[in-house]
Design goal:
This protein has 400 residues and is α+β, with helices and mostly antiparallel strands. Helices cover 56% and strands 23% of the residues. InterPro entries: MFP (IPR050739). Keywords: Coiled coil.
Length: 400
């Protein structure tokens, strides 16, 4: 009887356990999740990476890995003699062009002043010639009128002398009176001849005045044309110099910026995460090699987040607002725990037909979290009863 009672008790216990299991299997809920295999911790304030701007030699290093630095702090000094020489040459060429341009501008001003002076000379020359020409015409007119009067007197004197000669031949006029009348004719002829000579001299002077004026006018006009041509040539030269100077200033600015980059300064406040080792076999770095890396100090408004790639099947289940439990590869989750966050964004497919999700990781964190850490974990997409979860896994395995 004792053995039978024991069997009954064991049977009742098994039936009870099976019933309890069935109830639990039908009523207990578990999380439905999408497992994310690999992601990366990022920051809204990215790391600051300083790279060699050209082939350089590190001549001084003022920080080490782990140092806290402030924005603008000097981290390294670099050296490249070719860059320095190019900057000095660009500066010297720029100064030379500026000096040449100043000289040309002064020459332009001088040519302009010469042109103004020649125009003034032309105006004075024309005004003076007008006065002299008017005086010459007036003198010529006066001599012409005097000559006309002298010729009239000469004609009258000749008529009188002819009459006097006739009267003298008839004995009606004395010889002395006849000779006096004849002398009057000679005097009138002499006066007319003198006035004719003076008139011709005045005409010659007028012609000479015109010739001298034209020669002087031509000379000044040629000098004016030379001054204007020189000014135009200098203006063209100045414009060319200005274009060259503008290009040279751009070259100077570029070379100056390159030379200025010999000082490596922190552009954010943060912690030094990497420094080029100046004790290596060579202290020369090629263009593009990393010199120093600064991780930003996380402040309000610069929270960390994780970014994951999703498959086409996974993206159908992930929605914004869903919870995420993430493990950080750098910390053992059994000892330090997991990160908790929420999905902030789920992307549409990009050109490469890829999907990704962003999970916010609000502070506080159970350990020191830095951008660049690799993470994995799961996104909670809902709640399933235990049997639903088991069936879903079976169906997924069958489909797989």
């Amino acid at each position: 009887m004792g053995g039978l009672g024991y069997i009954r008790e064991m049977f009742a216990l098994l039936v009870g356990s099976f019933g309890l299991g069935a109830v639990l299997f039908a009523t207990v809920e578990v999380n439905a999740v999408v497992r994310v295999r690999e992601g990366e911790v990022l920051s809204s304030r990215p790391r600051s990476v300083h790279k060699a701007p050209y082939e350089v030699r590190v001549v001084a290093q003022y920080v080490s890995e782990g140092d806290e630095v402030r924005e603008g702090q000097l981290l390294m000094l670099l050296d490249n003699e070719e860059v320095d020489a190019a900057a000095r040459k660009a500066e010297a060429d720029s100064l030379s062009l500026e000096e040449e341009l100043r000289t040309v501008v002064e020459q332009i001003d001088n040519a302009g002043e010469r042109a103004v002076r020649h125009r003034r000379q032309l105006a004075i020359l024309r005004q003076r010639h007008g006065v002299e020409e008017a005086q010459s015409h007036e003198s010529l007119g006066a001599f012409s009128r005097q000559l006309e009067l002298a010729r009239e007197k000469q004609a009258l004197a000749e008529v009188k002398a002819e009459r006097s000669r006739g009267l003298h031949e008839r004995g009606m006029l004395s010889k002395e009176e006849h000779e006096a009348d004849y002398r009057g004719v000679l005097e009138a002829r002499s006066a007319a001849a003198e006035l004719l000579r003076l008139r011709r001299e005045q005409e010659a002077a007028g012609l000479k005045l015109g010739s001298t004026y034209r020669d002087e006018l031509t000379r000044v006009e040629l000098e004016l044309l030379d001054a204007e041509a020189a000014r135009l040539s200098l203006l063209e030269r100045a414009n060319k110099l200005r274009r060259e100077l503008e290009k040279q200033r751009e070259e100077k600015e570029l070379r100056g910026r390159l030379a200025a980059r010999q000082e490596v300064r922190a552009d954010i406040r943060g912690t030094i995460r990497y420094v080029h080792n100046t004790k290596a076999s060579s202290d020369r770095l090629l263009a593009g090699e990393i010199l120093v890396e600064v991780a930003p100090v996380l402040e309000d408004g610069s929270a960390l987040y994780a970014k994951f790639k999703l498959t086409q099947d996974e993206v159908k289940q992930v929605l914004t607002g869903q919870r995420a439990h993430l493990k950080v590869d750098a910390y053992h989750f059994h000892r330090y725990g997991v990160l908790k966050g929420r999905v902030r964004y789920v992307s549409p497919p990009n050109d490469a037909n890829e999907f990704f999700a962003i999970v916010d990781l609000p502070a506080p964190h159970p350990f020191e979290l830095r951008p660049g850490y690799k993470v994995r974990g799961e996104i909670v997409t809902g709640q399933l009863r235990l049997y639903e979860s088991v069936l879903a896994k079976l169906f997924d395995r069958v489909e797989g």
